[in-house]
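## Example record

The block below lists the input lines for one assembly entry, exactly as stored, with component labels intact.
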Amino acid sequence: AQSVTQPDIHITVSEGASLELRCNYSYGATPYLFWYVQSPGQGLQLLLKYFSGDTLVQGIKGFEAEFKRSQSSFNLRKPSVHWSDAAEYFCAVGAGDTGRRALTFGSGTRLQVQP
Amino acid sequence: ETGVTQTPRHLVMGMTNKKSLKCEQHLGHNAMYWYKQSAKKPLELMFVYSLEERVENNSVPSRFSPECPNSSHLFLHLHTLQPEDSALYLCASSQGAAGGTDTQYFGPGTRLTVL
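Predicted structure tokens for the full assembly:
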């Protein structure tokens, strides 16, 4: 069965600083990987996804993520954080070959942005 | 209305009450999902419907009863809940039935409190 680990429960960065949120997955085949963001009281919004091809994926709001098969990682990055980026971020993996019809989510990383 | 909508946004109910959560998707998708999001826990898949047929039931107690009358609407009927069922209930939809590889679009959620 697949699993997702987000090692950092809470991260604080200064506005304008760079950001990297870590995600490690466990899955036997090529995974389908997603990053979602959840603002307080809201549902999840898709930031970006990786299915195949170029391992560096661009998403919305200036985010990008890099798939590294050798490290089983799919870390999310942003070069300059804005105060509006404060939210909770979820990494998720989907199974492409088992027929399981849902995503497995990590526990999330809460991002706080200092002025 | 666009995307995925959920009503009500907040619900407080006693353990002996019966209530229903409603989800509607305006995306023309074929699959719909219920997730439970509890504090400090990863999102938990509850149910998956594909073309109005339940295709996955993730060991959810019988006090939760889903209903999918058509591909645009999904309900979660609640009865005799427990305080530990208090959580944010999220609905999602995807184009295809293989949710593990299809991008899922989430609604804003219903915040449920069981007294």
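The radius of gyration of chain A is 14 Å. The CA atoms of residues 53 and 67 of chain A lie 10 Å apart.
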